[in-house]
Write a structure and sequence with these properties.
This protein is mainly α. The chain contains eight helices and no strands. The protein is elongated.
Amino acid sequence: NCMKTHIFTSICKLLIFTQAILFPAYFARLFFNDILMKDLAGIGWLWGILGTLYALFAAFVLVAVWEHFNRLSDALSGEARMLVSIWNYADYLDDEKVSSSMKKSILRYIEAVTTREVALLSKHKHVPHPSPELIEIMETIDRVEFNGPRDESAFKALINAYDTLELKRQIRIQESVAQVPLSLKTLFILVSVFFVSSAILNGFANPVLYYISTAFISMIVFSTYTVIDDLDRPYEGLWKVSYEGFTDAKEYIEKKEHGAKR
C-alpha cells in the first residue's frame, strides 16, 4: 500500500509538472510563434547543445547515485551475513557460556542497528563506531578459551568474520550519511531548467508536435530528477534499502539452540 501510494503521488506530481510547463509553452506559441519560427535554426542548435549536455550530466549523476545505493545495499546484506557467521563460529567452539553470551550480544546489536541507528542514518546523521553493541561482541570473542586445534581453527574464522563485520558496518554508515553534493544537485537543476526552456522556445510548424515534444521533454526531466532524488534518499521513497537480512539473521539466531546440528 505504501508503494502504491508513493507511485500514485509521483504520477500526480509528474502530471502537474508537465501541465505547469505546458502553460508557458502555450503562451509562447500564442504570442511569439512568428519570432520563434524565424529563429528556429538558432534555437534548434541551442536545444541540441543543451540536450546533449543534459543527457551527459543526467547519466553521470544517475550512475553515481545508483552505485551509492548498491554499495549501501551490499554493506547491509554483508553485515547481516557476518553476524550469522559469527554466531555459527561461536557456537562451533562448543562453549555454552560463550555461545549464550554471543547470542545475546548479536541480538542486541541487531536491535540497535534496526531501530536506533536507522532513525539516525535516515536523517543522514552519524552513529558511533564502534558502537557499544559491537564492542560487546568483541569482548565476548576475547573470552574464548582454546581446547585444542579445532577451537583454534574456528577462532581464526571468527576473527575474520568480525573484521568483515566491522568493515561492512563502516561502509554502511559512510554510504548512509553521504549524499549528492548540494552544488552538483543545484547545477543539475539549472541544466534541467535550461533544457526545458529551450524546448519551450524551439518552434514547430505543427502545434500538436510542439506540445507533444514539450510534454515529453518535461516528463523525462521530471522523472530523471525524481529517480536521482529517490536513490539519494535510500531510507525513504520508492527505492529503499532492505534490512530483511537482519530480520532473517535474528530469526535464525533466536531459533538456533546451542549444540544443535546445522
